[in-house]
Amino acid sequence: MNDFKEVITNILPVLVLLVIFVLGFRLHQKKLPDKNRGFFVLIFFLLVFLSIYGVRTISAQKFYVSIGDISEYNSFISEEEVYIGELRAREEDLLNELKVHYSDIDSYRESMNSLNADIEKYKNLSGFTEVHGEGVIVIVDDGVRVLLRDENPLSIIVHDVDVRKLVNELNNAGAEAISVNNNRMVAGLSEVVCNGPTIKINGVQQTRPYVIKAIGDRYKMANRLMDPEGYGANLMKYGIHYEVLTKTDLHIDSYKGRDTFDHVDEVED
């Protein structure tokens, strides 16, 4: 509504001046009777007066601002400046909090990377990941020689104890990962047990020949396995097939047997 009034106030002087111009032009172009000419002259001067008064009034309205209004505006500006200052201070606090959160995120990522590295490390140590490296392959199989008179046929058959002792020799020679017929051997979880004429490893029935893989120093392990006083030499005396191969790179599968202990419980603080 105020905008409408302001528009009317601004346009009114223009309209008055336009009417004055038209009347002046008509008076100039047309000769009026003397009795009417005085009336039109009076109207002309009246309109000029109203126009000048209106313009001065409008000018005063446009350019005059009271001290009270200036004080009110200054107070409003001061309040807005205080509010803007508070917003900037809040912005600064939020930016500082954000920096702290970014720092926490970086620390969390570093901790997670370290934790993941430890997980992979202990998975490798515990046998729950596939690994590769230099090592040896030991092949053990039942003997095929002719039995001596009254000799027990079991003397040329590979038993569970034979496999366990060879695994122990490899461990003593520094083997870092061992498998038997692609069954990963894990301390405390793996089992090599007799099952009639065959062997069961990690609960899975196995058939001959028995292929033992070990990753580690291949020369150190081979020397231990081929020691004339070692268990392998004893097997060969009985006619058991016993073969040791060195490899620059071989793969050993991850452990896939049971992953819980039956009698061990964690000590709580």
Task: Describe the protein in words.
- The protein is of the alpha+beta class.
- Among the domains are: 2-64; 130-252, Alpha-Beta Plaits (2-Layer Sandwich).
- Helices cover 54% and strands 17% of the residues.
- A hairpin with a 2-residue loop joins strand 5 (198-201) and strand 6 (204-206).
- Helix 1 packs antiparallel against helix 2 (34-63).
- The radius of gyration is 53 Å and the shape is rod-shaped.
- The model has no long low-confidence stretch (mean pLDDT 81).
Short description:
The protein is of the alpha+beta class and 269 residues long. It has helices at 2-29, 34-63, 67-126, 160-172, 218-225, 231-237, and strands at 131-141, 177-180, 183-184, 192-195, 198-201, 204-206, 210-215, 241-252.
What are the SSEs and their pairings?
Elements (H helix, E strand, L loop, with lengths): L1 H28 L4 H30 L3 H60 L4 E11 L18 H13 L4 E4 L2 E2 L7 E4 L2 E4 L2 E3 L3 E6 L2 H8 L5 H7 L3 E12 L17
Antiparallel strand pairs: 1-7, 1-8, 2-3, 2-7, 4-5, 5-6
Number of strands: 8
Rg on CA atoms, Å:
53 Å
Q: How would the global form be characterised?
A: rod-shaped
Alpha plus pi helix count: 6
Low-confidence stretches: none
Distance N to C terminus: 79 Å
- Please state the oligomeric state of the protein chains shown: single chain
Reported CATH architecture of the domain at 130-252: 2-Layer Sandwich
Q: Helix amount, in percent?
A: 40-55%
Structural class: alpha+beta
- Largest sheet, order of strands side by side? 3-2-7-1-8
User: Main β-sheet, in a few words?
Assistant: 5 strands, antiparallel
**CATH homologous superfamily (4th level) name of the domain at 130-252:** Protein of unknown function DUF881
Question: Can you tell me the CATH topology of the domain at 130-252?
Answer: Alpha-Beta Plaits
CATH class of the domain at 130-252: Alpha Beta
